[in-house]
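Input/output pair, single chain:
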Amino acid sequence: MITLSATPQLETERLILRAPVASDWPHWRDFAMTDRARFVGGGSDKTALVLWRGFGHVIGHWVLRGYGMFVLTEKDSNTPLGMAGMWFPEGWPEHEIGWTIWRPDAKGKGYASEAAIAARDFARKEHGWDDIVSYIVPKNDRSIALAKRLGAVQDPQATGPETEDPLLVFRHPKGDAA
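Output:
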């Protein structure tokens, strides 16, 4: 398996968080072509070409920034469940922790929470991030609920990145990695 060089791997109680690899593409594509992906730039109206570019952004973020979104898998399987990690593309006002669950059978099992906590702790410890936000589409009730479970509070004074739709800004509590 070809991987990005010098990309860390994180381990939680149930998960491995690793660099994205080429074999993740079909899993991402299949998720991103559904309406479940509408909050992260996907949707049933998107073409594989558009989604290929989006997946390239995920990989390129690691190359350009030295950190990015981890693909999460269960410890006993290399099948991708989703992504969680650090996100700060050009033009983003603040450092973000984001997450997506790709597989419908992985929803509601706490994987996104477990992965987001590990990524947030890594961002603090390894990259010195103290001010961390999550940008969330207002209609994305599941992500809003997760942000709140992670201790994040909506910051109505903060401005999100320029996107097609306005985003809510949820500010994570400050603190050291657990």
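The chain has a mean pLDDT of 88. The CA atoms of residues 117 and 150 lie 7 Å apart.
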